[in-house]
Amino acid sequence: MSVWEDSSEVGCLLPMQPMCSGREAIESLWRPMLDPDMGVDIMINHLQWIESGDIAIHVIEERITLRGD
């Protein structure tokens, strides 16, 4: 969670999910996926970083694999 700002204005949009806003909601979304028992491996490709004033948008691609897949 260290990559997420502690703000209600931060957002996360995952495929097939509604937009998630606020650090607490984002942590609740990611906690089950990052449970060590899930065996999730996430590789990130940073595609673009757009910055204007005090706003930054990071466009990334995540490749997620599960243990045994």
Count the beta strands: 4
Classify the beta-strand content into a percent band. Answer: 35-45%
Poorly predicted sequence stretches spanning 5 or more consecutive residues: none
**Cα-atom Rg, whole angstroms?**
13 Å
Which structural class do you get from the secondary structure elements? mainly beta
Mean pLDDT: 86
The biggest sheet, with number of strands, parallel, antiparallel or mixed sense and barrel status, is: 2 strands, antiparallel
The percent range for helix content is 10-25%
Total helices: the number is: 1
List the defining traits of the structure above:
69 residues, mainly beta, two-stranded antiparallel sheet, 1 helix, 4 strands
Task: Please outline what is shown here.
The radius of gyration is 13 Å and the shape is globular. The model has no long low-confidence stretch (mean pLDDT 86). It is 12% helix and 42% strand.
Detailed description of the structure:
With 69 residues, the protein is mostly beta strands. It is built from one helix and four strands.
Walk me through the topology.
Layout (H helix, E strand, L loop, with lengths): L10 E2 L7 E2 L1 H8 L9 E13 L2 E12 L3
Antiparallel strand pairs: 1-2, 3-4
